Amino acid sequence: MVDQPIISALVLGIIEGLTEFLPVSSTAHVLLAGHFLGFNSPGNTFAVLIQLGAILAILLVYAQRLISIAVSLPTSVQSRRFVLTILAGFLPAAVIGAIAHDFIKTVLFETPMLICVMLIVGGFILLAVDRMKFEPKYHDVMDYPLSLAIKIGFCQCLAMIPGTSRSGATIVGALLLGADKRSAAEFSFFLAMPTMVGAFTLDLVKNRALLSFDDSAVIVVGFLAAFVTAVFVVRSLLNFISSRGYAPFAYWRIAVGAIGLTALLLGA
Fold this sequence. Notes:
The protein is an all-alpha fold. The protein has helices at 4-19, 26-37, 45-61, 63-72, 77-106, 112-131, 146-156, 166-176, 181-206, 216-244, 247-265. Helix content is 75%, strand content 0%. One of its GO terms (cellular component) is plasma membrane.
């Protein structure tokens, strides 16, 4: 018979991988699922460690492009500018996240009611933005100006409130600032790389005293599940967004938030 923690780890890993790069808030889904599954992880260390699976997934999918950019850095002005825009977009989250880390993890992450409300609010915002008629000025992430990247970076900071969604905040910000849907999602992917690595490293340092290899099997299951499902999502998401837009994700957020809020109010 499979242990309950293993099953919970598998479920949470799949949820992490499926939602990390969608504008639905992976943090909200993992925390709410963990709450209702009764899965206990001191300091949320499990969520921190399985996130590495999603990080490796996007690095794998974009490996060829990342290598191409790295190789062309000495000769290509465009490549150097692109790397600078990604670092500039990452900077606001790096500074604010480091300062507010303890408050975010000990207060905001421990408030399921807030998470559900933010899922619903974010869903309506995403739905409204998806229905707007834009005339995009930016179609290629390699040509995003530095000022645009910094503004998107500040939008990303909103995701420090669990339930907001890092990808949702960056995508909505990019759309409102003149990017088209496909490049907005792709820039969110690239911005996720330093942001997720930075958040993972900070969480690892802050919670190193809580880490234990006693639950290594649970962690490995969650990690592998997150990695496999995240690879699938990253490979297919851009085409889906190009053809369907963001409305399906908005409706999903509203539904999950409403169900979670109802369950919490009923004492679940």
